[in-house]
Write a structure and sequence with these properties.
- By secondary structure, this protein is of the alpha+beta class.
- The chain has three domains: about 140 residues, Creatine Amidinohydrolase, Chain A, domain 1, CATH 3.40.350; about 140 residues, Creatinase/prolidase N-terminal domain (Creatine Amidinohydrolase, Chain A, domain 1, 3-Layer(aba) Sandwich), CATH 3.40.350; about 300 residues, Creatine Amidinohydrolase (Alpha-Beta Complex), CATH 3.90.230.10.
- The strands form eight sheets. It has a six-stranded mixed sheet, with helices on both faces. Strands 12-11-10-8-13-14 form a six-stranded mixed sheet.
- Strand 3, helix 3 and strand 4 form a beta-alpha-beta unit.
- It is globular, with a radius of gyration of 25 Å.
- The termini are far apart.
- It comes from Aurantiacibacter aquimixticola.
- Keywords: Aminopeptidase, Hydrolase, Metal-binding, Protease.
- GO terms for molecular function: metal ion binding; metalloaminopeptidase activity.
């Protein structure tokens, strides 16, 4: 029998926990690969609670339940999750461990799925609960799966080859490099479970997760350069098997756990940040010697080959033309008051789909009108959708997946017909100045992203304002729109990626912003490529950024008097490049709009 209400689902889960002699269970947003975006089959938190955000978790006890989300989802969680069933808890002020310890009796047994959490999470939770006399228990089989009668099956989509010409390196070369690393570290094998790392290493892609072209699978690479690829056999067409050759053994995904027996007594690497608890548990169980090492695909994947760099430029030109068509349409239709957030996002998708090379969006479009634009990770829905009011600010953050590149762009536009207020122009221009400062900075090799973050914030700080997100994230090559290890963000607390030095070939976003609660949001985002720079009289090696995203920035929001001559020159040079690249792709009124939008400031 299908359970239509979240109350019924919660009750069914509690009955299942009682049957297993568990007093509670932790429900994350996760899959067995610790993916940022997960397939429908793994949307256990959404099924149980109704919460549709991309980060958060729940704890269910016998008589209590709570949702844990950070400040990005304070409003959304209250809209989507019934407060009669779940308490609302704010991370990081409230922690799951403290809440469970407070609500649980001594001797309670709290379950967790070892295929959905890192070992570090489990160890920290176990230590916290032990102080309260509460036991953390790894379950065998997720209890939600036992009561979710109509749970979708994992995607049956076929894997496909990412051509060597687009990748710039063959899978054999990549596996040989990993094998050389294993031998240098005196290791016998490495377990790779992050889906984008598997895809990159094998030069394959898939369609198993929305917006991220990956195939649900695991990989074990041996020190001799051979590999075992664990994937449902019917997902591997003949051309994929042929492209991989005999050195890659294709094995059923459901045999992954049993395959660990062959690693007994061997020195095996696994990434503690990218591999689930269950992998380490199996390695321990079979008697392997575990080496905690960063996934060897992570850094080389981030450093794009010349072929990937050129592919990204081509994808950006294609995508920039689509976004420019949308902005031309929006300039005409927005002031009429007939467009809302959902229809605007759909129209932008339509413009992208006009190009047959679009494979997918790279994430759900953030389409934020007025006060919704002030929610920096806003996700539009039927319940939250606002109209684009005349004389208001509209923020749209979107991207496309193309076989030769992944795009991500934010533009903030003024919906007329009247001129924007001075405060809005001031804030927009400060964001622009920070964007330009980061874009034009040169820096010595070895510089981490955290060292550059303040460049983008400085003009906002001068006005006593800031933004509560990072300034830049890594981007994949027809892979994840968010890719490590590089980031540009405040470096406090050893935040992941902020200590990673920026290296030539890496692609990052440059996206400072400003958000006035309950009124409007501003963000300007381009993607940039780290490149080597030559400076007269330089000592050592230096780097800078090539701007990849090419779409006009709304000039009506700029206070020219606040810009220096150098900043005006940047604006003029950038828009001259936009016109040069996009003009051949547009015609008629759209071309005329581009010409006007790209005039010197």
């Amino acid at each position: 029998m299908l359970m239509q209400t979240h109350e019924a689902r919660l009750s069914a889960l509690r009955e299942e926990l009682a049957r297993r002699e568990l007093d509670g269970f932790v429900v994350p947003i996760s899959d067995e690969h610790l993916s940022e975006y997960v397939g429908d089959y793994a949307q256990r938190l959404a099924w149980l609670t109704g919460f549709g955000g991309s980060a958060g978790g729940a704890v269910v006890l016998k008589n209590d339940a709570a949702m844990f989300v950070d400040g990005r989802y304070t409003i959304q969680v209250r809209d989507q999750v019934d407060g009669k069933l779940f308490d609302y808890k704010s991370v990081p002020k409230d922690t799951m461990g403290d809440w469970i310890a407070e609500k649980s009796a001594e001797g309670a047994r709290i379950g967790f799925d070892p295929w959905l959490h890192t070992r570090g999470w489990a160890q920290a939770m176990e230590k916290r609960l032990a102080k309260a006399g509460v036991e953390l228990v790894a379950v065998n089989g997720n209890p939600i799966d036992a009561v979710w009668a109509d749970q979708p099956e994992p995607s049956p989509a076929k894997a496909f080859v990412q051509d060597d010409e687009l990748a710039g390196r063959s899978s054999a070369e990549k596996r040989a490099e990993i094998a050389d690393w294993l031998k240098s570290e005196k290791l016998d094998a490495v377990v790779i479970s992050a889906l984008d790392s598997v895809a990159w290493t094998l030069n394959i892609r898939g369609a198993d997760v929305s917006h991220t072209p990956v195939a649900l699978s695991y990989l074990m690479v041996q020190a001799d350069g051979t590999a075992d690829w664990f994937i449902a056999p019917d997902k591997v067409p003949g051309e994929v098997a042929s492209a991989l050759g005999n050195a890659v053994r294709i094995r059923p995904k459901d045999g992954f756990s049993d395959a660990f027996a062959a690693l007994a007594g061997k020195r095996v690497a696994a990434d503690p940040e990218r591999s689930v608890y269950a992998i380490f548990d199996r390695l321990d169980e079979v008697g392997a010697q575990i080496a905690l090492e960063t996934d060897p695909a992570v850094l080389p994947k981030a450093i794009k080959t010349p072929a990937e760099q050129q592919g990204h430029r081509d994808a950006q030109a294609r995508d920039g033309a689509a976004v420019s068509r949308f902005l031309h349409w929006l300039e005409n239709e927005g002031p009429k008051g007939m467009v809302d957030e959902l229809s605007a996002a759909a129209r932008l998708h339509d413009f992208r789909k006009e190009n047959s090379e679009l494979v997918d969006l790279s994430f759900d479009t953030i389409s934020g009108a007025g006060s919704n634009g002030a929610l920096c990770h806003y996700r539009v829905s039927e319940e939250t959708c606002l109209p684009l009011e005349p004389n208001s600010v509209y923020l749209v953050d979107s991207g496309g997946q193309y076989r030769d590149g992944t795009t991500d762009i934010t533009r903030t536009v003024w919906i007329g017909p009247d001129a924007p207020p001075q405060e809005v122009k001031d804030r927009f221009t400060r964001v622009l100045k920070g964007h330009i400062a980061l874009d034009t900075q040169t820096f010595p090799t070895g510089t981490p992203g955290s060292a550059l973050d303040v460049l983008a914030r400085q003009f906002l700080w001068q006005a006593g304002v800031d933004y509560a997100h990072g300034t830049g994230h890594g981007v994949g090559a027809f892979l994840g729109v968010h890719e490590g290890p590089q980031r540009i963000a405040k470096g406090r607390g050893g935040q992941a990626g902020t200590d990673q030095e920026l290296m030539a070939g890496m692609i990052l976003s440059n996206e400072p912003g400003y958000y006035k609660a309950n009124e409007y949001g501003i963000r300007i985002e381009n993607l940039v490529l780290v490149e080597q720079r030559q400076i007269e009289g330089m000592e050592g090696e230096w780097l800078g950024f090539e701007t990849l995203t090419l779409v006009p920035i709304d000039r009506t929001l700029v206070d020219k008097a606040m810009l220096s001559e150098a900043e005006i020159a940047w604006w003029d040079d950038y828009h001259a490049k936009v016109r040069e690249v996009l003009a051949p792709k547009l015609d008629g009124e759209q071309l005329a709009w581009l010409e006007k939008a790209c005039q010197p400031l």
